[in-house]
Amino acid sequence: MSTTDAPVKPLLIVGADLLGEGVGDLLLVDGRIAATGPDAADQAPEGTQRYHGDSMVALPGLVDLHTHLREPGREDAETIETGSQAAAAGGYTAVFAMANTTPVTDTAEAAERVTDLGVRAGYVDVHPVGAVSKGLAGEELAELGLMARSRSRVRVFSDDGKCVHDARLMRRALEYVKSFDGVVSQHAQDPALAGSTACCHEGELSGRLGLPGWPGVAEESIVARDVMLARHTGSRVHIAHVSTAGSVEVVRWAKAQGIDVTAEVTPHHLVLTTDLLSSYDPVYKVNPPLRPAEDVEALRAGLADGTIDIVATDHAPHVRQDKEHAFVDAAFGMIGLETALSVVSSVMVTEGRMSWADVARTMSTAPARIARLETQGQGLAVGAPANITLVDPQRTVTVDGAQSKSMSRNNPWHGHELTGGVHLTVLRGRVTAREGLVWGADA
Ligand SMILES: NC(=O)N[C@@H](CC(=O)O)C(=O)O
Ligand SMILES: [Zn+2]
Ligand SMILES: [Zn+2]
Question: Given this model, what pLDDT does residue 2 score?
Fold first, then answer.
């Protein structure tokens, strides 16, 4: 038995907002939700630890469908241990680790290694995303079936970092994953339209700054193609990090046709705009690129009306040597596990565009459902695994990048004031993080 499964004391969270059920108590026993509501306290066994939840909101543990943990291969930027510490601090109880590691997660053995390292760290459940193509080369399908049947039970496949641009390969991947109810998560970016040297959004500003850009249509054309392939194959496609108004429109249309498509937006694309590039600060270099304010508004509207199903971080740690270059030469990506909930709270909840129940859906139950994660899709139901994120909606924090649990410092939120923060994270009844302090498997 791993230490993660060791018995934990029963925990009673007293007087929290339980979303649909109003204010009540939440009793966690033997790793499960034993009782909820006003009478839960009456059922608390002797020795139960009490935790005050006054003016807090209880969410089901957050699930991140898009994380880069860099292990194996770039343990100088992040490890499964440090990335999952950052995840726990950010309120996550499960993360999906993208396949663009070295070596690539394109075999059952590679997937199981990621799973095992996640269990050893013990902060969150780490689920490997399987590569679509061998070595992310975009030529031959990876061992999709073997990964699906492995101990890791892989259901999400992605060449993220690269687009599966060959339509025939994408079609075959969609057909294949259908047999085990898997999903292909597409990094939608036509390489022919994006080019190899572009580093930002193509527009009036990129021209003025003298930076080579690529246009929104490089994303939108692949989104349009892939929803048609999903219709043709009757399979499920997920669009990673949607960044333009045009992509939102295509997804909205496809859903109206009954096509089985889901989409994600990152916290940074909900807030940051391409104007920030006038500083030439490489912290703002990310793929897909930051877009103009009209796109940001369309993404917020799409998330609020359910066209965009989920928020995913695309946490992409990089060492200083890869980031601190001239803008054109710097690596793409920014970190985001610890700030995601606070960003969504600040721009969507505080602004009245989403409720906390919507946050529970877009950051926990919907991503769990897309990944067919049986353990985390049930919300706060009695009998469900005791994965809980307690949020203080009033807390205002100024982000200090130096405090991050991530090994990397490419944090675009440093110095930002955000309202609403994670207070406590509970994984199967065990506290994994409290106010940014974290506890792993041996705690
Ligand atoms: N988002 C990024 O800018 N970078 C990601 C790759 C990706 O998500 O496409 C990375 O792995 O660094
Ligand atoms: Zn990507
Ligand atoms: Zn990514």
Answer: 43
Residue appearing with tokens 């039970």: 153
> What is the DSSP annotation of 392-422?
EEEEEEE--GGG-SSS----TTTT-EEEEEE
Place of tokens 């089901």: 60
Per-residue confidence (pLDDT) for residue 122, from 0 to 100: 97
Backbone angles phi, psi at 145, to 5 degrees: -65, -40
Give the Cα separation of 8 and 29 in Å (integer): 8
Q: Which residue has the tokens 């020795």?
A: 47
Distance of CA 338 to the CA centre of its chain: 11
Closest by Cα among 404, 413, 438 to 77: 404
Domain annotation for the chain: domains and CATH numbers: 3-58+384-438 (2.30.40.10), 61-376 (3.20.20.140)
Whole-angstrom distance, CA of residue 389 vs CA of residue 341:
10
Which H or E element spans position 298? helix 293-304
Distance 186 CA to ligand 1 centre (A): 12
DSSP-derived 3-state class of residue 218: helix
Which two tokens mark 136? 């992310």
402 backbone φψ class: left, alpha, beta (φ>0; ψ -120 to 50): alpha
Could you tell me the end-to-end alpha-carbon distance of the chain, in angstroms, rounded to an integer? 15
Kindly provide the b/e burial profile for residues 185-221, where b requires at least 16 CB atoms within 10 angstroms of the residue's own CB. bbbbbbeebbeeebbbbbeebbeeeebebbbbbbbbb
pTM of the model: 0.97
Give the number of the ligand closest to the Cα of residue 238.
2
Measured from the Cα of 161, ligand 1's closest atom is 9
Tens digit of pLDDT for each residue in 196-220? 999 999 999 999 999 999 999 999 9
* β-bridge pairing 388-398 and 57-60: antiparallel
Cα dist. 267→151, 200, 241, 363 in Å? Answer: 31, 18, 10, 11
To test ligand 1's pocket by mutation, which of 160, 222, 272 has the most ligand atoms within 8 angstroms of CB? 160
Among residues 190, 226, 309, 314, the one annotated as catalytic is: 314
User: What value does the mean pLDDT take over residues 301-305?
Assistant: 98
